[in-house]
Amino acid sequence: MAGREDGNRQRETPAGPGPAWAQELLEHLRPAGRDLRRVVDWLSGAVRGSVALQDAAGNLMAGTRLPLDEDLVTDITAGRIASAAWESRERHLRLVRVEHPSRTCVLAVSRETPFDRRASDVVTHTAQVIELLLAARESTAAGHRLRRATSDLRLAILQLLMVEDTIAARRVAAGLWPGLLDAETACVYVVESDPALRDRIAEECLDSTREDALVVRCPAMDGHVIVVGPRDTTGEALRSLVGRHPDIFLGGSVRQSLARTATAYGQAVSALAVAHFRPDKTAVYAERTHPERLMDPEGLRGWTARVLRPLDTLPHHTRAELLATTRLGLEFTAVNAAKVLGVSRNTVRARMERVEALLGTDFADLTVRAVVHLALNTQIGLPDAEFTGGTADSTLRLCDLLSGPAVRTWAQHLLGRLDADARNPRRTLRTWIAVGGNAERAAQALGMHAQTVREHVRSAEPVLERQLLAAGTDLYEVVLAHLAVGDLDLPVLHRHD
C-alpha cells in the first residue's frame, strides 16, 4: 500500500517526473530567484511533505519547525554523520547536513509516505542548492560589510581633515591607502547627482581616480560625493566622468593645504552652484581677490590673535575642536556641519555657543559672523608660532584694517555693481544683512513683500558673483564690503575692537 501511495504521489507532484524537477530546482540559482524560503517551499511541494532548515543552535532559518532528535541533529552538525533517516508508521524523516561558510545547518524533510529514489534525489540536490545559496549570501554580506566599513573609514578620514587633524587622518589612511595623504596640498571636488544614483557614481569616482583620491559619500547632502584629490590627475578624471553622464555636475576648489580641507570644501560647493549654468557642467572656484589679502598682513595677524585670545586659556585639543566646529558652523547650517563632523547638531550648537560666550558676542548678527570668519580664516593659514613678538602686540583695530585704500577700493567696486539696477537691490541687501538675513524683518523695514526682498537678494548673486542666500565665504565677503564702505556698523567683539 505504501508503495502504491508513492506511485500516486509521483504522478501528483507539481514538480513533475525526471529532469523536470531538476530544471525547476536550477531556476532557483538564477539571480532573480535566490531565496532560501522559496527553495524550501518548493521542496515541500516537490516531495509533498514538511521541510525545516535550521542551524546547529536550533534556530529555524526557513520552512516549518519539526520535532527533531537533538542528539541526531548534533551528530550531523558536528560532522560525525552526513545524513540520517528515521521512520515510524505515521512519519518518515530525512535529515541532511548543509555546509555553511560560518555554521553548519540541517535540512529536515518529513512526510507521511516512505522516501523513494526520486524523493531522496530531490532532497539531496536541494541541499546542494541551499549550500550554494548560503555561500553566495555569506559572500554578498561579507562584501557589503567590507564596503560599508571602508566607506565609514573614508568618512572618518574626511572628518579628521575637516577639523585640521591631518596627522591622525594620515595615520588612519596609511593602513588601507598607503601614500594617499602624503602630499601637503589637495583639491576638493563635489560631484552632484540624483541621490538614487549616488552609490554608482561614487564607485565610478573610485574607478576613475584609481583610488588615488579620498572618495566619500557626503553625510550632509544625499546627492553629493566629496573627493579629496592630492594628485593633479584627479580633476581631469572627474571631468571625464561628468562628460559620460548627462545629469551630474562637478565643482572644484583651488589647491589648499590639507589643514584647509574645510575651506576647500566650501569652495567646491560654491563652484558647484556655478557648474549648473556651464555647458560642460563643471566649474572650479574662481580665485578672486579676497579682502584679507588687501589688508596689512602684520596688522591682520595681530588683530586675529587678539580676537581669538579668549580661547587661548583652553586646552589645545579643546581649542582646536571649538575653532574647527565654529569654522564649519559659519560655512554651513548646524545640521550639515554636524553631519560632516559626525556629531549631533546640538553638539555643534553647544560648541559655537561656547565660542560666542568666550568672544562676548552673538552669531545671530551677520556682521559678527563675517568678522569671526575673517579671524578664523586668518588663523588657519598661519601657524600658532607666527602669532608672536611684535605681530601679536599690533594695535591695529578692525576699522583700521577695513579702512585701508586697497580694501575700500575693492569694496566700492564690488558693491558699485548693484547701482545700475533701478530697483535699488543694494539698499535691500544692506537692510537684509542688518537684520541677520531675515527676509520678513527686512520687508517690514523696507515696506515691501518678503518675496520681493528674496528676489532682490537673489538677483544680486550673479552681479556680485557670490552666493548670498546660503551662509558662507561669499556672503561674509559681501558683509565685509559693507563694513569697509561704512554702510553697516562695525560689530564689537569682547570689548577689544
TrEMBL record:
Domain of life of the organism encoding this protein: Bacteria
Listed Pfam families: HTH_30
UniProt cross-references to InterPro entries, sorted A to Z: CdaR-like_regulators (IPR051448), PucR_C-HTH_dom (IPR025736), PucR_C-HTH_sf (IPR042070)
Residue span, PucR C-terminal helix-turn-helix domain: 335-377, 427-469
PANTHER family: CARBOHYDRATE DIACID REGULATOR, DNA-BINDING TRANSCRIPTIONAL ACTIVATOR ADER
Protein name: PucR family transcriptional regulator
Organism the protein comes from: Streptomyces swartbergensis
